Amino acid sequence: MTTTARGPGIPGHRSPGRYVWWLVVSQRGRVAAGASYGSLWMVGLMLPPYVLSRAIDEGLVPGRMPVLIGWVAVLLGVGVANAWLAVMRHRTMTRIRMDATFRTVRILVAHTLRLGAALPHKVTAGEVVTIGIGDVAVISQTLTMTGPGVGAVLAYGVVAVLLLSVSPLLAGVVLLGVPLLAVLVGPLLGRLQGAESRYRERQSGLAARLTDLVGGLRVLNGLGGKEVFADRYRRDSRALRSEGYRVGSVTSWVQALGVGLPTLFLAAVTWLAARMAAQGAITVGELVAVYGYAAALVVPVSFFIEGGYDLTRGLVAARRVVRFLRLEPDAADGPGGGAGDAPEAAAALRDPASGVEVVPGLLTALAAARPAESAAVVDRLGRFADSAATWGAVRLDEIALSQVRDRIVVADNEAELFAGTLREVVGGRRDRTEEAIDRAVRTALAEDIVRGLPDGLDSAVEAQGRNLSGGQRQRLRLVRALLADPEVLLAVEPASAVDAHTEAGIAARLHRARAGRTTVVTSTSPLLLDRADRVYFLVDGRAVAVGSHRQLLDGQPGYRRLVSRGEDGDGADDGTGPAGAAEAPVTPEDAR
To answer: How far apart are CA 204 and CA 202, in angstroms?
Structure first.
């Protein structure tokens, strides 16, 4: 039921129709089998009226019991065969839908990984959720029409041929009546497509607002802004509800006509056939057959209408998927302008925009009154932003991205913590030895976190570390970065959410653990800065001074005011705690 191990394939995303067609041809064998079962089943629905008419005219009316029993046996055989075809059709169409679902999900996940850090800047979380939950299922449902849809056309033709043998007039009514039904429903399907598109857009926007509301609930509570966002959500929710009513109105008409028009059509054909039977133009058996044909024809006609409805909704959903697949990663996140090689040996990283040069093997610190300025330098050095940064003699954007990511790791202070065991959370993509984990945990002063959880490293961590404090989450991010053991580690505010005692221990252990390896930290904490081999003092994003912490304290009044938490420090208000320590709660575990 899933796609093959070879992968989902390359989607056709030039248009919604091409994407749906790609899903069809990607499993052409299964679709052909489903169409065959569906066609045979649909045509089989038209055979019982014919067999029944023969049983009446050749067995029941003349009183020929053996003939009647024979036709009854044939009718039973047709019913059993059709039941088996119905089961096989349903199973096959279920596999087709599941294949389409998994294929689309794999394509979306692969493209999400390709977008990488650019994803949050290009599409909202609500949009991704709506596509992944709602649109994928709608597209898969559209493929159902490949089975009964083909069979409906064949059944329509078979009934027309059978009715020609009974009455050309009745055949003409059927041949003209079914296209008329499609003409009546067609305009509604066009309206439905527009209404469905607007509804989906509003739905993704509302989902994005809900995601933001839940994700920032703690901050909103602290700022007293929860009710403001809740009011906005209620207003958008009412707008979505109104749009949903419009979609429901059109949908109800489509579904009502899908049931009502075939019934009216059946009544018209039956009335005409009854008059002809009363006039002696057709036999009683032929009257029964005509009624059976018309009744059975309700099924394919309904499938015509439902197929059009599913196709309309499927194209709306496919349009959103196609739009997502057309998103391109940022230049800094993409494969790069070239495929050059990184320096074989350790080399300096240079950022011309700020004047920062990271010397291999040293612990370098970046201090700025505005943390965003030092973080921007890290983004450029880690190739998460467009820049002219170089590694050795080569521009970073000319080096194959895989080499950059393998050797340079950016440890962001707000990096995601995924759900899993503590061991999985800090281990990343590789299995880590107990010794390596213990060493990284000690360096980040995170032993109390392991001891405080019920099952130690095998304890469950909720998504985004919701069952941990701010300081604990920050230390686990540092543990994860240390376990990656990169050649170059760029850490943004690695200890801003812990107390001064813990920060001092992290600074000392980090310096020892990364001895001889290239490390960059951004901080205005004197505890970290004092351990750095080189400190860059940034003003307005440019390095105005470089030296040791002591040298800058003696020679740079602005630097001295910044790290001593003076008025120019733009941070904490005392001389011992780290900048930003008040941004997260401090627990007794953090203070140990």
So the answer is: 6
Other C-beta atoms lying within 10 Å of the C-beta of residue 298 = 17
Taking alpha carbons only, the member of 467, 477, 472 closest to residue 413 is 477
262 neighbors 298 (Cβ within 8 angstroms):
yes
pLDDT tens digits for 453-487? 898 888 998 887 888 888 899 999 999 999 988 99
Mean pLDDT, residues 60-77 taken together: 88
DSSP class of residue 398?
G
- Cα(337)–Cα(396) distance, integer angstroms: 10
Contact in structure between 407 and 487 (CB atoms under 8 Å): yes
Which element (helix H / strand E) includes 495?
none
User: Which of 310, 278, 312, 272 has the alpha carbon at shortest distance from 291?
Assistant: 272
Residue that is written with structure tokens 């949050």 in the block: 120
Give long-range contacts, CB 8 A cutoff, 24+ apart: 572-577: 575/526, 576/500, 577/499, 577/500
Q: Which residues, including other chains, have CB under 8 Å from residue 26's CB and lie 6 or more apart? A: 3, 8, 9, 99, 103
Q: pTM of the prediction?
A: 0.61
The helix (run of H) or strand (run of E) holding residue 86 is helix 65-115
CA distance 343 to 391: 7
Q: Rounded to an integer, what distance in angstroms lies between the CA atom of residue 367 and that of residue 360?
A: 19
Dist. CA 536–CA 356, nearest whole Å: 7
Mean pLDDT of the chain: 79
Contacts of 569 (CB under 8 A, 6+ apart): 369, 524, 561, 562, 563, 579
